[in-house]
Amino acid sequence: MDNIFDGKKRYNSFDSFFKAKFGCKVAKIPLNGGFTCPNRDGTKAFGGCIYCSESKSGEFAGNPEDSVEVQFEKIKSMMASKWKDTKYMPYFQAGTNTYASLEKLKLLYEPVLKKENVVAFSIATRPDCIESDVLDYLEDVSKRVFLTVELGLQSVFDETGDIINRRTTYAEFLDCFYRLKERNIPVCVHLINGLPNEDYGMMMHSVKTVSDLHPWAIKLHMLHILKGTVCEKMYLDGKIKVFSLDEYVKLVCDELEITDKNIVIQRLTGDGARDALIAPLWSIKKFEVLNSIDREFERRGTYQGIYAN
């Protein structure tokens, strides 16, 4: 069966999208703006999501003791040594990156938006943390650079949301998603495979449900067990089972086969920090995981979206 994508991948990859749009590699620069989360600071709950470490999903972001401008320059210098003729996407990654006043957000966002060769901008946040004035501002930003807002949904099932201490509902996600879509702001939806009490059918249902919303992009992760998290205790108590590499690869291919072909796939695996990761240890070898997904698609002769309808 012919590959409908770029000849290298059988899915609509993040790199392919940006190379087609800007004619070059666009590198993400992960930043830490020092944000917390409403399910961490006591506004809605304490402790954050059960899988989240003290770095608030910012293990690979810049040092929060540095200004975001300094973080940007340090990481950019590393990126520039890997890729030539690169453009950049500042990515506010750690914590909930709209969980502040509009004035504070502008002080953090604007300096990096003005950096040379910045053509895109990404903000990771929660669907219950974008106020109306911030939404107006994001619409303005989207007219200056390619802006994408990453919404942490993880699962469409609210019972799973309760287990992971998410403290925001699928209904709230939909409300935020459509408000962003009305402003023509591209949305990337985060989903996690392997959450407690979820079976194959539930994970497939989450992907199919999100695909039917037609977001700009989807990020797929597997559940990581990190030191110092609630998940660590659950894993050690036998309440969480992690995927083998083969199980995960087959699941991802199943999920992509039912995902609309026009949706950009921004991530298919995660890579927890080596010194904090308990399981699955195979996830450290990111390129081995991605290569295994490519080989499985080739073996099947299928690709993203083949069974989407």
Q: How would you sum up this structure, described in words?
A:
- The protein has 309 residues and is α/β, with parallel strands linked by helices.
- It has helices at 14-22, 68-82, 102-113, 132-142, 158-163, 170-182, 200-211, 230-236, 245-257, 286-300, and strands at 26-31, 87-92, 120-125, 146-154, 187-193, 217-222, 225-226, 264-267, 277-279.
- The strands form two sheets. The protein has a seven-stranded parallel beta sheet with strand order 1-2-3-4-5-6-8, sandwiched between helices.
- Strand 2 (87-92), helix 3 (102-113) and strand 3 form a beta-alpha-beta unit.
- The radius of gyration is 19 Å and the shape is globular.
- The two termini are 18 Å apart.
- 43% of the residues are buried.
Number of helices, where a helix is a run of at least 4 consecutive DSSP H or I residues: 10
**How far apart are the termini?**
18 Å
Could you say which overall geometry the principal axes of the C-alpha atoms support? globular
Order of helices and strands: HEHEHEHEHHEHEEHHEEH
Rounded to the nearest angstrom, the radius of gyration is 19 Å
Task: Write a brief caption for the model.
The protein has 309 residues and is α/β, with parallel strands linked by helices.
Key structural traits:
309 residues, alpha/beta, 9 strands, 37% helix, 16% strand, globular
What topology does this entry show?
Layout: H1 14-22, E1 26-31, H2 68-82, E2 87-92, H3 102-113, E3 120-125, H4 132-142, E4 146-154, H5 158-163, H6 170-182, E5 187-193, H7 200-211, E6 217-222, E7 225-226, H8 230-236, H9 245-257, E8 264-267, E9 277-279, H10 286-300
Parallel strand pairs: 1-2, 2-3, 3-4, 4-5, 5-6, 6-8
Antiparallel strand pairs: 7-9
Helix pairs in contact: 7-9, 9-10
